[in-house]
Amino acid sequence: MVPPLCFQHLKQYWAMYRLRLIRKSCLTQIKLLGFDTRLCHSSRPPVDLIGINYPAETINGRKYRDNHQTSQMPLSKINHILKANEYSYKVNGYDGRNSVNSILGLDSNILASNALNEDRRSAATCLQSRGMLLGVFDGHAGYACAQAVSERLFYYIAVALLPVKTLMDIEDAVENERPVLPMLQWHKHPNDHTSRDSGKLYFNSLRTYWQERIDLEEDEDRDIQMALMNAFKRLDNDISLEAQVDFGVPFSHFTPLRVALSGCTACVVHVDGDDLHVANLGDSRAVLGVQEENGTWSAHTISNDHNAQNADELQRVLSEHPALEHKTVVKHDRLLGLLMPFRGFGDMKFKWSGEMLNRVYETRPDILSANEFKMLPPNYHTPPYLIAEPEVTIHTLRPKDKFLIMATDGLWELMHRQTVVQVIGEHLTGLHWQKPVSGLSFTLGQMHRLLQERKSRAIFALEDENSATHLIRHALGSDGFGTVDPRRLSNMLSLPQDLARMYRDDITIVVIHLNSANM
After folding, report:
1. Would you say the C-alpha torsion 72, 77, 82, 85 has a positive or negative sign?
2. Angstrom distance (rounded) from CA 424 to CA 419
3. What is the full DSSP assignment across 108-135?
4. What's 516's DSSP letter?
5. What would the pLDDT profile of 246-297 be if each residue is shown by its tens digit?
6. Are strands 507-514 and 401-407 parallel, antiparallel or unpaired?
7. Rounded to two decimals, what is the model's pTM?
8. Which residues are CB-neighbours of 441 under 8 A, at least 6 positions away?
9. Are strands 275-281 and 391-396 parallel, antiparallel or unpaired?
10. Is the peptide bond before 256 cis (omega within 30 degrees of 0)?
11. Nearest Cα to 471, choosing from 425, 435, 517, 437?
12. I need a labelling partner for 330 at 20 to 30 A (CA). Which of 41, 53, 231, 455 fits?
């Protein structure tokens, strides 16, 4: 016979066992939802980030703490992770055509969530035309498309911007095997990957583009808006054609077919003097940090998301297909019930004809990953459903425009745009933790906590010379009141890769510091 005390212990252990089973079941369901979300490039629901360390449970008057509790990561390791991919570039006072530049410099950073980071970034100075190009690219169904677009798009834009006479000189030099002056000066981090297997293919497609412009005597006359639109659409068309002509080498990460079947969104900025053009495709975003006369900061969004939350974009999609499809074209806020962004590069499974897709799936099943669709999307009747035509926004820079933030949706899912601008503005001015406290009544304990918070802010601000790094630190570690919680930040960076994707996406940020003195 078991003594009564042992029955009490068994009761407590049974309660703890049921609690852990419930937690395991919840995590499994979340993981399944997260798996579906990755396929569909969607955002995660809000999650209690601090809840990663399970709190103590009280059962029959006794406290039990789950053994998932982890020790806090040291600050040195946190900084090593956050700064591994940070990059900064300071612009001199003149661009390629000897005019005063409106960009002082840029800070960028990437923090991966996926085991293989699907985000990319690009920055380059136009050498044979004016201005700078900067972009962020958010890949899905793999990184192949984002990688290809991040390497190729700026060349297509440069070709679209160059006068026909310059293109003729370039073609003559190539034809006669003479050196060709570079079009772009790239600003890259050493960790930024470059694919080397497809260089010849990419060059031949680009050359065909400028040859066609020469044959048509097509001169853009510095119409930057049309140049951006034409470059986006032409590159996407070339990605499609390359995949149809040559299915590529099996198992290569950059085979044309793999690039075409994966996809990416893109947000690209062209800055020339006071003229700012933003070409956006999908749900990455560009936001201006504006400092008002009274010193306060405000956010001015200069791009629109292309998804179901944009009423105009939703109407555009519906208008391009028969009324009979209106209930299936967008389902559960996703294109054909599957894809969140309504515009993007690649994703030929939403663009090619059904016959072409079936031929690919039958002849090249090896090219498809375990997460990819191996059959036509449901209700696939009148493709294309996805377009690669960007929405171009034009803005004239003003003295109060201090910086521009470009980021993939991994940032905007965690932070509101006003908070993003506030964090960067205060980081640049360095005044937030120095402001005097007035008009408030504090107890001694509250004052002590306030001083500790300000000390923490000052430490983190001094740690981050790179504005993009500082923003990622706040995005992951914010306590909701403008302070970085070291424990929360440690938890988010300690998550294993298979779990991290449930809490956040890959984050890519480019912060452009504007030279407001010359506006």
Report:
1. negative
2. 9
3. EEEE--SSS--EEEEEEEESSSSSEEEE
4. G
5. 655 544 455 898 899 999 999 999 999 999 999 999 999 999 999 999 999 9
6. antiparallel
7. 0.81
8. none
9. antiparallel
10. no
11. 425
12. 231
